[in-house]
Write a structure and sequence with these properties.
33% of the residues lie in helices and 13% in strands. By secondary structure, it is of the alpha/beta class. It starts with 20 loop residues before the first helix and ends with a helix.
């Protein structure tokens, strides 16, 4: 095997805690889960969830989207029931993507869903609905924050901010399944060499402190970081984005080395991560099942992503495919 270059990554050797055996077993045995990218970018008329960055939208203009975000069709019970039909045992949802907008009633910022006309905390509604059905709730959280002023001006203050939000997520919604962090990508030299203010870090993230905080407050929660390098100390599984373990065919950033941690593969059901009606192309159930078999044959967890509509519901075609996949999985087990 070609030796992977040594990437400069944050040192987390002072992390002391890890997930419990119960939590790790629950994650591995779940096998199959739903991922959701949802936020202000779901209102887009072009582009994707990176539009604030790619179009360099002024912050005041982007914040005005809050007045239009009113997903009145959102129903946590319906989402959870769909997951049961689909055979999924975990939900990974974007609590905060790179644009900084938060899907829960955080006390750390006013850039949140409860300050939209919707006014409701979707995580607070999802948590009990999923728990009643035996589905674990996992939080996607972006370390990068394009809109928080401290990200560019006061790094220590920003680290306090994001760790404060992590503490909230660990203490407000009962027992959770885990965290997936995103945005910190040592292999993405095209970002770091640009010295682009949208991405440039002002120092270390204090990942060791963050990981120990989560493992202390949520001992059964698994942690991963979508760094595309081998897992660091304090991380509990390795994730591949749009690829199988050890492969780097799709994203061209994935780690080709397989570590000694459990593996997960993060895939899309539609053409993109978020809701993009101009780019709508739902994969067939047969295609998803073939990917599922490939992932599971490598003993990896399969996470299938969708982008709910701005109305708060899941596209009917995506619902149909999820149900077809669930029916096939049940038939295989008979």
């Amino acid at each position: 095997m070609k030796k992977q270059p040594v990437w400069k990554v944050e040192d987390t050797r002072r992390a002391r805690l890890e997930v419990s055996r119960k939590g790790l077993r629950r994650f591995c045995e779940a096998g199959y889960g739903l991922s959701v990218h949802w936020g202000l970018y779901s209102l887009n008329r072009s582009g994707n969830e990176w539009i604030y960055f790619t179009e360099h939208i002024p912050l005041a203009t982007y914040r005005r989207r809050m007045s239009s975000f009113n997903p009145v069709r959102f129903n946590a019970e319906e989402w959870a029931d769909l997951m049961v039909e689909a055979g999924q045992k975990m939900l990974l949802i974007t609590t905060k993507h790179h644009d900084g907008f938060c899907l829960w009633d955080t006390q750390c910022t006013d850039f949140k869903i409860t300050n939209t006309p919707f006014r409701r905390d979707v995580l607070a509604e999802l948590a009990p609905a999923l728990r009643e059905r035996g589905i674990a709730l996992h939080f996607y959280y972006s370390l990068v924050d394009w809109t928080h002023p401290a990200y560019r001006r006061d790094w220590a203050k920003y680290v306090d901010y994001y760790q404060g939000q992590v503490r909230e997520l660990c203490t407000r919604f009962g027992e959770i399944g885990g965290f997936l962090f995103d945005g910190y990508c040592p292999r993405a030299e095209w970002i770091w060499t640009q010295k682009d203010e949208y991405f440039k870090m002002g120092g270390d993230w204090d990942l060791a402190g963050t990981y120990d905080l989560i493992h202390k407050l949520q001992p059964h929660a698994v942690i991963t970081n979508n760094t595309h390098v081998l897992p660091l100390r304090g991380e509990d599984y390795q994730v591949w984005e749009l690829d199988l373990p050890g492969e780097n065919k799709g994203l061209k950033l994935n780690c080709t080395e397989i570590g000694d941690k459990p593996a997960a593969c993060w895939w899309n059901l539609n053409a993109g991560w978020s809701y993009q009606p101009w780019n709508h192309c739902v994969r067939s159930a047969a295609d998803i099942l073939a990917t599922y078999r490939s992932v599971r044959s490598r003993k990896a967890v399969f996470m299938l992503n969708i982008g709910p509509r701005p109305f708060g519901d899941i596209h009917p075609e995506e619902q149909q495919v999820l149900r077809q996949v669930g029916a096939a999985l049940r038939a295989w087990r008979l």
